[in-house]
What does this fold into?
Amino acid sequence: MPAWNFGPAEQEFAEAGLDPTRWVQALTSVASASGSFGAVMLPLAGDALPNVPYTENCSIVMEAYFRNGWHLQDERMRTVPTLMQRGVADDFDGHSVDEIAKHPYYQEFLAPHRLRWYAGVKIACGDDLWAVALQRTIDQGPFTAEEKEELAQISSRLSTGAAIARALSASAATGALEAFEMSGTAVVLLNRHGHVFKANASAERLLVDDVQIVTGQLTARDTRATTALNRAIHNLLWRPTGGLSAPVALPRAAGRPLLAYPARLSSSTANALADCQAMVILIDPDSRSPTPEMNLRTLFRLTQAEARLATQLALGESLENVADQFGIGKETARSQLKSIFAKTGVHRQAELVAVLAKLL
It folds into this structure.
């Protein structure tokens, strides 16, 4: 058996479960402990997004992976049945030596980066399955049977951190729905496939007749509107950073169109394992019930001055104009905005607008 020490890597995985920004370090530790060039975390069900974590030395190859469409034809997905059964799999569980020597995935995609060999370690997090895909160079050679046996033994131990991350993300998603509901804002949450997996009561009241959730898809009776919304959601999920997209109008027979704002907060882009990867905020132009400042103070524990500033920013005013309007210094306004960000859990003004979408 190889004399590997996975203790530090297991600790890193546990910490990454609490802080998603540490996934890169956790993968780096696993790669180092196993004598690998680098490592990537990929969902076994496919539909990987560019925000999957990987070690820094794999950044160039992962950019090519998504840019050139290799994620849509990842030959190593053929090893998934073995991976699920044994907890570990390598290239030879899906291909022969001759196939590896000729296949475009290995020769056109991996070879230019001097990579060839892989071992996947199953990571279970809730009802979702991922793999730590360890990468070795051509010169390093494939994983031995003894090394694969050792990797299979750490599968359950590394899964702990992923399970923690999944549980915390589920709690955060529930909290987000409750927060939006308290502010009277309709919102649906989307997973990495772009499918709706949760909606609050305000959204359910709007999603009847002309706009509904059908087999997990937010669907309008107007097929062109559905196509436009799906395109906007896809573009948002594949955007490297979070943000708020332009609204998509969903026509209704009675009343003005429902406005759908696809949004992605930076916290979701950082945690690839989270159920919630994006959301769609629904605005009914026929509604006449804006969120009062008092609700903001109660919901987010803002001070009166912070609630007043947040309201004006959500209405589209610039920070400088609001400062002049209220007769406060720009530094004071920036300090209040920083406090608002901390209390609402966002990092950018666009994200604040998304959270306070009812005020748009």
